Amino acid sequence: MKTAASGVENHTKFLLNTPWQGLDSCGSFLPHKRKAPMFNETVKSLRLQKRLTLRDFCSQAGLDPSNWSKVERGVNPPPGDVGLLERLADFFGLAGAAKLAFIDEAALQRREIPADVAENVILQKALPAFFRAARGHELSEQELQNLAADIRKLHTPDAE
Fold first, then answer.
1. pLDDT of the residue at 155
2. What is the pLDDT of residues 118-127, one digit of tens each?
3. Burial profile 15-52: b = 16 or more Cβ within 10 angstroms, e = fewer
4. For residue 76, what are the contacts with CB-CB under 8 A and spacing of at least 6?
5. CB-CB contact of 30 with 19 (8 Å)
6. CB pairs under 8 A, 24+ apart, for 3-11?
7. Are both 48 and 14 inside the same structural domain?
8. One domain for residues 47 and 99
Protein backbone atom coordinates (compact mmCIF):
# COMPACT_ATOMS: atom_id res chain seq x y z
CA MET A 1 0.00 0.00 0.00
CA LYS A 2 1.39 3.36 -1.01
CA THR A 3 1.20 6.00 1.69
CA ALA A 4 1.31 9.76 1.21
CA ALA A 5 4.70 9.83 2.93
CA SER A 6 6.19 7.25 0.57
CA GLY A 7 4.76 9.19 -2.37
CA VAL A 8 6.44 12.36 -1.11
CA GLU A 9 9.69 10.46 -0.54
CA ASN A 10 9.61 8.93 -4.04
CA HIS A 11 8.79 12.28 -5.65
CA THR A 12 11.56 14.01 -3.69
CA LYS A 13 14.07 11.30 -4.65
CA PHE A 14 13.03 11.72 -8.29
CA LEU A 15 13.53 15.49 -8.06
CA LEU A 16 16.91 15.12 -6.39
CA ASN A 17 18.15 12.52 -8.87
CA THR A 18 17.08 14.44 -11.97
CA PRO A 19 19.88 16.40 -13.70
CA TRP A 20 18.39 19.89 -13.54
CA GLN A 21 19.85 22.18 -16.18
CA GLY A 22 19.17 25.49 -14.48
CA LEU A 23 20.91 24.79 -11.19
CA ASP A 24 24.51 24.40 -12.34
CA SER A 25 25.04 28.16 -12.37
CA CYS A 26 24.52 28.40 -8.61
CA GLY A 27 27.20 25.84 -7.79
CA SER A 28 28.78 22.61 -8.88
CA PHE A 29 27.36 20.48 -6.06
CA LEU A 30 24.84 18.73 -8.32
CA PRO A 31 25.91 15.52 -10.06
CA HIS A 32 25.26 16.64 -13.65
CA LYS A 33 27.67 18.01 -16.19
CA ARG A 34 25.41 20.28 -18.28
CA LYS A 35 26.32 23.93 -18.24
CA ALA A 36 23.34 26.19 -17.56
CA PRO A 37 23.13 29.47 -19.42
CA MET A 38 24.56 32.33 -17.42
CA PHE A 39 23.10 35.83 -17.35
CA ASN A 40 25.99 37.26 -19.37
CA GLU A 41 25.39 34.75 -22.17
CA THR A 42 21.63 35.26 -22.08
CA VAL A 43 21.79 39.04 -22.24
CA LYS A 44 24.32 39.00 -25.07
CA SER A 45 22.17 36.54 -27.01
CA LEU A 46 19.09 38.73 -26.51
CA ARG A 47 21.01 41.78 -27.71
CA LEU A 48 22.24 39.95 -30.80
CA GLN A 49 18.71 38.69 -31.54
CA LYS A 50 17.67 42.34 -31.72
CA ARG A 51 20.61 42.87 -34.12
CA LEU A 52 22.10 45.58 -31.93
CA THR A 53 25.76 46.37 -31.55
CA LEU A 54 26.97 46.77 -28.00
CA ARG A 55 27.19 50.55 -28.41
CA ASP A 56 23.71 50.84 -29.97
CA PHE A 57 22.20 48.71 -27.21
CA CYS A 58 23.91 50.72 -24.47
CA SER A 59 22.81 53.98 -26.07
CA GLN A 60 19.18 52.84 -26.16
CA ALA A 61 19.28 51.27 -22.68
CA GLY A 62 21.20 54.10 -21.02
CA LEU A 63 24.21 51.97 -20.08
CA ASP A 64 27.96 52.57 -20.25
CA PRO A 65 29.37 50.44 -23.13
CA SER A 66 32.70 49.80 -21.40
CA ASN A 67 31.10 48.49 -18.21
CA TRP A 68 28.37 46.59 -20.07
CA SER A 69 30.95 44.86 -22.25
CA LYS A 70 32.51 43.51 -19.04
CA VAL A 71 29.11 42.24 -17.89
CA GLU A 72 28.53 40.42 -21.21
CA ARG A 73 32.00 38.86 -21.06
CA GLY A 74 31.45 37.70 -17.47
CA VAL A 75 34.26 39.91 -16.12
CA ASN A 76 31.84 42.02 -14.05
CA PRO A 77 28.82 40.54 -12.27
CA PRO A 78 25.31 41.26 -13.54
CA PRO A 79 23.57 44.31 -12.10
CA GLY A 80 21.93 43.84 -8.73
CA ASP A 81 19.39 46.60 -9.20
CA VAL A 82 16.06 44.84 -9.78
CA GLY A 83 14.62 47.99 -11.33
CA LEU A 84 17.36 48.01 -13.97
CA LEU A 85 16.91 44.27 -14.59
CA GLU A 86 13.16 44.75 -15.03
CA ARG A 87 13.80 47.62 -17.44
CA LEU A 88 16.21 45.44 -19.45
CA ALA A 89 13.72 42.55 -19.46
CA ASP A 90 11.07 44.92 -20.81
CA PHE A 91 13.53 46.22 -23.42
CA PHE A 92 14.05 42.65 -24.63
CA GLY A 93 10.30 41.93 -24.58
CA LEU A 94 10.44 39.44 -21.72
CA ALA A 95 7.33 38.95 -19.62
CA GLY A 96 6.01 36.56 -17.00
CA ALA A 97 8.18 33.52 -16.31
CA ALA A 98 10.81 34.61 -18.85
CA LYS A 99 11.20 37.95 -17.06
CA LEU A 100 11.54 36.22 -13.68
CA ALA A 101 14.07 33.75 -15.10
CA PHE A 102 16.09 36.68 -16.49
CA ILE A 103 16.19 38.37 -13.08
CA ASP A 104 16.93 35.05 -11.32
CA GLU A 105 19.83 34.31 -13.68
CA ALA A 106 21.37 37.65 -12.74
CA ALA A 107 21.09 36.84 -9.02
CA LEU A 108 22.46 33.33 -9.48
CA GLN A 109 25.44 34.54 -11.50
CA ARG A 110 26.15 36.96 -8.62
CA ARG A 111 25.93 33.84 -6.41
CA GLU A 112 22.93 35.24 -4.57
CA ILE A 113 19.52 33.85 -3.76
CA PRO A 114 16.87 35.93 -5.58
CA ALA A 115 15.46 38.56 -3.21
CA ASP A 116 11.83 37.38 -3.45
CA VAL A 117 12.97 33.87 -2.45
CA ALA A 118 15.25 35.09 0.34
CA GLU A 119 12.44 37.22 1.83
CA ASN A 120 9.84 34.43 1.84
CA VAL A 121 9.47 33.04 5.38
CA ILE A 122 8.29 29.62 4.19
CA LEU A 123 11.22 29.28 1.81
CA GLN A 124 13.66 30.44 4.48
CA LYS A 125 12.59 27.43 6.54
CA ALA A 126 12.71 25.01 3.59
CA LEU A 127 15.99 26.08 1.97
CA PRO A 128 18.39 24.45 4.46
CA ALA A 129 16.75 21.04 3.89
CA PHE A 130 16.81 21.61 0.14
CA PHE A 131 20.51 22.55 0.24
CA ARG A 132 21.37 19.41 2.24
CA ALA A 133 19.41 17.26 -0.18
CA ALA A 134 20.98 18.95 -3.22
CA ARG A 135 24.43 18.24 -1.80
CA GLY A 136 23.55 14.55 -1.56
CA HIS A 137 22.86 14.31 2.17
CA GLU A 138 20.00 11.98 3.01
CA LEU A 139 16.99 13.62 4.59
CA SER A 140 14.96 11.80 7.21
CA GLU A 141 11.37 10.86 6.50
CA GLN A 142 10.24 13.74 8.75
CA GLU A 143 12.52 16.25 6.96
CA LEU A 144 11.13 15.14 3.59
CA GLN A 145 7.56 15.53 4.85
CA ASN A 146 8.35 18.98 6.29
CA LEU A 147 10.00 20.07 3.04
CA ALA A 148 7.00 18.87 1.01
CA ALA A 149 4.59 20.61 3.41
CA ASP A 150 6.54 23.88 3.14
CA ILE A 151 6.48 23.67 -0.66
CA ARG A 152 2.73 23.02 -0.61
CA LYS A 153 2.25 26.13 1.58
CA LEU A 154 3.83 28.24 -1.14
CA HIS A 155 0.98 27.33 -3.46
CA THR A 156 -1.78 27.68 -0.89
CA PRO A 157 -3.17 31.17 -0.34
CA ASP A 158 -3.36 32.34 3.28
CA ALA A 159 -0.85 29.70 4.41
CA GLU A 160 2.01 30.84 6.58
1. 66
2. 888 888 887 8
3. ebeeeeeebbbbeeebeeeeebebbbbbbbebbeeeeb
4. 67, 70
5. yes
6. 5/141, 5/144, 5/145, 8/144, 8/145, 8/148, 9/141, 9/144, 11/148
7. no
8. yes
Residue 26 domain boundaries: 4-34+120-154
pTM above 0.90, yes or no: no
Do both 74 and 132 map to the same domain?
Answer: no
Q: Long-range contacts made by residues 141-148, C-beta under 8 angstroms, separation at least 24?
A: 141/5, 141/9, 144/5, 144/8, 144/9, 144/12, 145/5, 145/8, 147/12, 148/8, 148/11, 148/12
Residue 146 burial (CB count, 10 A): 15
| CATH assignment of the domain containing 93 | 1.10.260.40
In a domain, 135, yes or no: yes
In a domain, 48, yes or no: yes
Ramachandran bin of 51, using left for φ above 0, alpha for ψ from -120 to 50, beta for the remaining angles: left
- Structural Rg of the chain based on CA atoms: 19
Residue-wise pLDDT for 41-61, tens only, equals 999 999 999 999 999 999 999
Is residue 159 one of the residues assigned to a domain? no
Question: 67 in a domain, yes or no?
Answer: yes
Task: Give the total number of structural domains in the chain.
Answer: 2
